[in-house]
Write a structure and sequence with these properties.
By secondary structure, the protein is an alpha+beta fold. Helices cover about 30% and strands about 15% of the residues. The protein has a two-stranded antiparallel sheet. The termini are far apart.
Length: about 90
């Protein structure tokens, strides 16, 4: 039985892609999606109107919101916890 031999892939530094969100003063990234061979594709066959595009963007926002909440909860961020009721 042959073991899988790991493959090494090399990228050039100028092939790094980055999509991000700057903070309010524009000096620092609040979030970033970075990587080599990063490919963002939209199924243009299904996006036929502004409403379709908005729905797609909103759904992607929900995906990233869930990922953000998971990371916040893992770090036990105090501001995520609900305020105690009296």
């Amino acid at each position: 039985m042959e073991k899988d031999i790991p493959q090494t892939v090399t990228f050039k530094s100028d092939e790094l892609m980055c999509y991000g969100v700057l903070n309010y003063d524009g000096n620092e990234m609040m979030a970033a999606i970075t990587g080599y061979d990063l490919n963002v594709k939209f199924n243009m066959r299904l996006i036929n109107s502004l409403a379709d595009a908005e729905n797609c963007a909103n759904a992607l926002a929900d995906v990233f919101y869930q990922a953000l909440m998971e990371q916040l909860l893992e770090r036990k961020a105090d501001f995520v916890k609900p305020e105690p009721t009296l």
